[in-house]
Each structure stands twice: as C-alpha cells, then as structure tokens.
Amino acid sequence: MSSSIPGKTTLPLDGIRVIEFSHMVMGPTCGMILADLGAEVIKIEPPSGDKTRQMTGLGMGFFRTYNRNKKSVVLDIKSPEGKANLLALLAESDVMIENFRPGLMDSLGLGYQTLSAKFPELIYVSHKGFLPGPYENRLALDEVVQMMGGLAYMTGPEGRPLRAGASVNDIMGGMFGAIGVLAAIMQRGKTGNGQEIQSALFENCVFLSASHMQQAAMSGDIPPPMPSRVSPWTIYDVFTLANNEQLFIGAVSDKQWAILCDVLERQDLLDDPTLQKNEQRLNVRDDLLATLGETLKHHHIDELSAKLDTVGLPYAPITRPDELLQDEHLKVSGGLVPMQTDDGDTTDVVLLPLMMGGKRPQVRHPLAKIGEHTEEVLGRLTNRA
Q1: Partner of 197 for a Cys bridge, out of 50, 125, 132, 309, CB 3.0 to 4.6 A?
Q2: Do 123 and 188 meet the contact criterion of CB atoms below 8 Å apart?
C-alpha cells in the first residue's frame, strides 16, 4: 500500500494502491475514477502497450479519456519474472481491476479465488458482459447489451433499434465498479477482509431501462420508443429556426406555455380558449407544433436563446462533441482542463462531473508513456514473490 507524503494536500483515496489490468473503456473508467480521487493506479501493459493507445476512428479518444492520472508498468505476466513481480505488487496493493474475457484471468492463475487465498485483504474488481447466470460466458459489447437491454429499442424509431451515441454501459460499468471499490474499502475497515466486486454491461443497460420496465408493469402496455413516445407535454421538441439551426424548447406547464407565447409574440395562441390547458393542447399537439414551427423558422438561434434564457424557459442547442471543446461554461467552470499527452502534445480533457469541497478532482500527471513507470514501481518492491 502506498503512503501519504507529509505536508502534502491529500485526496480522498490517497494511500490506496490499485493494480489495473484493463483496456478499452469499462475497466479504464473504473481506474480513472479511483486515480482522480487520489489512488495510485498502476496500469499493467504488455510489452507492446495497451492496444487502445493505437485505436482509430470512434475509438481514437479512448486511451486519452480514460487513462489519466495513472502510472504505466510493462510486465510480461506469462514469464516467471513478470508473474513474480506482479504478485509482489499485489502483496502491497489494495485493489485489482480487470475487464478481460471470462476465464482469462483464471487461466493465468490470476482469478479471484487464487489471489484472495494469497492476499485476503485484496479487493478484486471484475468488469464483464454479464453477471453470473445463463449469459455469463457470452462475449458482449456495448452494442450487444443495448440491443438486449431495451435501450436500443427505446432510442430508435419503431423498427429501427439504435445504439446510443456514446459507450454508456461501458462508462456506467466502470462507475459501478468504482462505487463497489469504495464500499469494499469501507467494509474492509470493519472486517479486515477484501472481496470480489463484479460489474457488468448487460445489468447496467437493464438498470437504464428499469423505469420503462415499471411503466410496462404498471400500464400493461408496451412502452413506445422515444421517437414515438406519447409526450405528457405539448411543447417538448426540437424546432428548426432560421438558417436551418435547431433548438430544443420545452414548455411543461400552463405558465410556461404563456411565457413562450409572449416570447414568440403569439397572443392569438395565448388567447385561444381551446389551448388554455395542457390537456387541450395535447389533443392538437401535431397541428400546434406545426404552427409554432412556422413561427420559429423566422427566429435566429442566438436572439431566441437569449430571450428564453431571460424568461427561464428550458432550451438547448443541438451541440456536436467538437463544439463542446469551446463551450463557455465548461471552460469558465473548470470542467475542461489541459493535459499533456503521451506524445508530448497538450489536449483539453473533461474532468469528473462532481465537486468535492468546492473543487473538481484534477489532472495531476501527464498521460503515461508505455512503461514509463516500470523502473520506479518495480524498484521499490519489498516483497518479491
């Protein structure tokens, strides 16, 4: 276990050492959360490095996003020396993270049962496709579980199931893994024993769909996909404005309806006796949205956004990820900060979406190069297995 430096401002997990065997998104997210909160996270990479470092396309940003504040140690765990070094590291560590296919860690002699016998205080975190049960040996991707877990059905139009535009289950899996670690650390303080934590993609996705499951149980009806949903509010949609710019506008009460009519200078709609209540407006929702659309297409997005902001109505531009790199709120609030990358460049990265004691957990170190900390970490081992 690592130790705190006297006089240094400590973070919540300062003194906790984590060994991370993971790649892609789910395991690295768990490790990154723990690292951001102050744990010493040692990422074990093969001699060729984590393959995620070299991904292209939609996976290009994975390594930079989910591997900050970690140390990189290269070990060939299939060699006797590499295995001995790893066991010596685990003897001085609190947590081990892995997210490899079912059975792989057991085949390497690194499964929970084997390691817990050697290191009873170790907290062992497995990230898999499925929790134990009939599906547990299936391989899974975020796409797979989104199709199985109700999310793709609810996201796409009828007959066109659609994957969400981010790896929501992988990220959630890492979050729940980290939550499990925090709880296990608390429990170990009472019992002295570690335990196995399991987090899985499928169960994450079912949790996302849980309210729709209850909707079905309570109503007896099949929940319609979001594009076909029966909205409880009339004005809750995306509108096309001047220059083909788009803006989501919500007016979810009779009071907000009146405010919107005033902003749009549509006194005729406000005075219409057949549109006074939300239930009345819902009966003519399609026609009313078309009417408002004709008015809104003459409004410019900046001017209308300012007016909606002033009167306090919900609204949102349709923002691309690249535009978020210049988002005023993210920059001013400190949620987007520079990080030195493993190739020496600098990039802006998104911090954890929480504050502790009025501060956001920060980037503390440059992104590690392959094996950058091997000599440092192995050189301080006191117990070679």
Answers
A1: 125
A2: yes
CA dist list (Å): 317 to 98, 295, 355, 384: 39, 18, 26, 57
Q: Using DSSP bridges, classify how beta strands 123-128 and 196-200 pair: parallel, antiparallel or unpaired.
A: parallel
In degrees, to the nearest 5, what angle opens at C-alpha 354 toward C-alphas 165 and 361? 110
Of the candidates 168, 166, 177, the residue with the CA atom closest to the CA atom of residue 34: 177
CA angle (293 as vertex; 287, 297 as ends), nearest 5: 160
Q: CA-CA distance, 29 to 20, in Å (whole number)?
A: 11
The dihedral built from the CA positions of residue 114, 120, 122 and 127, taken in this order, carries a sign that is: positive
77 contacts: CB under 8 Å, gap ≥ 6: 44, 83, 86, 108, 110
**Residue 235 pLDDT class (50, 70, 90 cuts):** very high
pLDDT tens column, 182-215: 999 999 999 999 999 999 999 999 999 999 999 9
> And the tokens for 220?
């007896």
- What domains lie within the chain, and their CATH numbers? 17-209+331-379 (3.40.50.10540), 231-320 (3.30.1540.10)
Let me know: does 75 contact 44? Beta carbons within 8 Å.
yes
Query: Interior CA angle at 206 toward 203 and 211, to 5°?
Result: 145
